[in-house]
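anyone seen this seq b4? input:
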Amino acid sequence: MAHSVLRFFGVLATVTALVVVPFSGAAAGPLRTADYPSWDDVQAAKQNEATAQAEADRISGLLDDLEATATSLSNEALKRGQEYLVATYNRDAAQNSADDLEARATEASTKADAAKRQVGQIAAQLYKSGGDNGTVNLLLNGDKSKELLYKLGTMSQLTSQTVGLRDAAEIAANNASSLRSQADAALAERDRLSTEAETALEAAKDAQAAVDAQVVEEKAHSATLYEQLAALKNTSAAAEQGYREGLAKAAEEAARKAAADAAAAADAAANDSGGDGSAWVPDSGSVASPDEAKQIAFNMLGSYGWGSEQQSCLVRLWTGESGWRVNAYNPDSGAYGIPQSLPANKMADVAPDWPTNAATQITWGLNYISGRYGSPCSALAFWDGNSPHWY
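predicted toks r here
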């Protein structure tokens, strides 16, 4: 789902709701220690079926909250990261504009100086040929160049060539002044955008710190909550986790289709504002290039039982999705990375370095393709068969 850089962020809220709250519909929000049940609470609830079910529902809601908060914070961090990249793009564009204007102003000043020198040479020639002393003194000794150029125009001794040079010098000088004023304005805008970029970077860092804190929160409580849920339902923690993951996969298909439809509608009404559809994340400046990522993927195909004939299908699929960019970000849906995981933080199932590690993203993507479609070529056939594309 590769789309333009800035669109209607309202779409994100709609699609995220489909993905991050597939169970009880609990709203994302920070939890307190008091919100979590103790094992004594669980044992007491098991005394009768009704209270056991109520406690199980409560624990499911807490798991929903943890997952929804993690996804919401990840999306927020990616959005802030994209805003930072767009801000730096605009800042750099302003700097390039200022540099161009300054270069043009220098060129205009050079032309003005050259024209003035030619006027001076003609004045010298007039002097040598017996020109009026007062005229020559004005030509050679005038401190104010503008006054000199204007007065030159009233001197009958000057030839038509000199008048043309005077006009050219005046035009070039005015042009240089105008261009320098524009360059100064562009530099002021550059400074404003630099401040904006710094602010956006700090917001992105703060958002990422919130993500990191939520990851710690999830790890601290999810395992216990699954064990408590299993105890209440007389199952196993693995079974409960697997059941919830199954429900999430079913919701993901609906979310992917909704995201593709919403993004297509946004594309019809939005314009690019710079950038390339990427998000800043810590260390994203040193991620694998698209060509390097492709080679990583090709080296993995054999472990899934796929031959080299699947390479071209995978290349087409993920070129259409992300351009094989590790930090590719779709603001309409929150999809991220080479395989455009939706939500982005699902790739944490493979490893926590999913924001920047091409191998982690590719592993998640190939697992998804294998489980859902069987092979990259089958996934591509499905992708080709949908307009707008999704898989």
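The first helix runs from residue 10 to 20. Residues 15-254 form one domain. kinda curious what u guys think
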